[in-house]
Design brief:
Its main location: membrane. This protein is mostly helical. The protein has 2 domains: 16-161, no CATH class; 165-308. The protein has 9 helices and 2 strands; from the N terminus they run H-H-H-H-H-E-H-H-H-H-E. The chain has helices spanning 21-44, 73-99, 106-111, 114-131, 136-160, 173-199, 216-243, 248-273, 278-300; strands spanning 168-169, 303-304. The chain has a two-stranded antiparallel sheet. Helix 6 (173-199) packs antiparallel against helix 7 (216-243). The radius of gyration is 22 Å and the shape is flat.
Length: 308
């Protein structure tokens, strides 16, 4: 009498590396923000064509090389491409550690694919940008995609530390609604900020300014208005959080966003009245990326997920 064949249990060949997941996700978020800074440096210095082709930097060579006619532009552009490579390695690590974790939900595992998809999309877009000589719309799209990747990376990092049961709200419904609205209102703040930069002297081309054909002053006022609306809702959210005795994690996340927003406002007005110095514009871009991560965190602190 034959005995039924038993299927051997699946072994998790990455089990020894699972404790690294949190650190890898933190690094992924940091570098997602960092590449906005290096991409901003490319834009602010007009180095978008520092490397004349893609994926090579120059015909026949992948790296920036010194020669008598060398300018600093190719080193800035090549440096940004190098950071993209680092981000690609981290994205692959995220896929290996998150997407193969069978102990987690399918939705969580699929979320782990986004950083890698984003890196590939950004690399292809960068190549198209070089071939199209820095088309202004695509230059702006670069930042928008990066902002989305920062948001997803912040979400992924938070999800890694919680379970996969359906979310349970831990705040009053009104406060949760306000937290969600903060994320919604952040979108026009970021998008209008990108348009302001593209419409101004830091559009990504050191020969042609104001590449996006809109009124820079009008776009600046619209951007400022969106920030004031965002700040008003943020203030209301903070008041409601205190009045309803929201958990400390919620108020902490809100105060962090308050500090970032006020800092961004200060930098924004100073750069406007000082002729848009490149350093301040770069700091403003960094602040925008940090703001995205901070705002995404707010509604996530307003619910909990238990382990299944």
């Amino acid at each position: 009498m034959s005995t039924p064949t038993q299927t051997p249990p699946q072994t998790d060949w990455l089990a020894r590396f699972r404790p690294w997941t949190h650190g890898v996700l933190v690094a992924n978020l940091v570098v997602q923000i960092g590449i906005i800074v290096t991409g901003g440096a490319v834009r602010l210095t007009g180095s978008g064509l520092g490397c004349s082709t893609w994926p090579e930097c120059e015909p026949g060579q992948f790296t920036a090389a010194f020669h008598p006619e060398t300018s600093y532009h190719q080193y800035i552009e090549f440096g940004n491409r190098t950071i993209t490579g680092v981000l690609g390695v981290l994205a692959i690590a995220v896929v290996l550690l998150v997407c193969t974790d069978r102990s987690r939900s399918r939705a969580y595992r699929l979320l782990g694919l986004v950083p890698l998809v984003g890196v590939v999309a950004q690399a292809l877009l960068g190549g198209i940008l070089v071939l199209l000589h820095l088309h202004p719309g695509l230059v702006s799209l670069h930042f928008v995609i990066s902002a989305c990747l920062v948001a997803v990376s912040a979400l992924l990092l938070h999800r890694s530390g919680e379970g996969d049961a359906p979310p349970r709200r831990v705040v009053e419904p009104a406060l949760h609604t306000l937290g969600t609205w903060l994320v919604v209102l952040m979108v026009p703040v970021v998008v209008l900020g990108v348009i302001v930069t593209g419409a101004g002297p830091h559009s990504g081309d050191d020969e042609i300014a104001y590449r996006i054909g809109v009124d820079p002053a009008l776009m600046t006022r619209l951007h400022a208005a969106s920030v004031w609306i965002f700040l008003a809702v943020l203030a209301v959210t903070l008041v409601v959080a205190f009045r309803t005795n929201a958990p400390r994690a919620v108020t902490k996340a809100l105060w962090i966003v308050v500090v970032i927003t006020l800092g961004q406002g200060l930098i924004g007005y100073v750069q406007y009245f000082t002729g848009l110095p490149a350093l301040l514009v770069g700091l403003h871009m960094l602040g925008a990326a940090v703001l995205v991560a901070g705002v995404v965190k707010v509604p996530l602190t307003m619910r909990v997920r238990e382990a299944l």
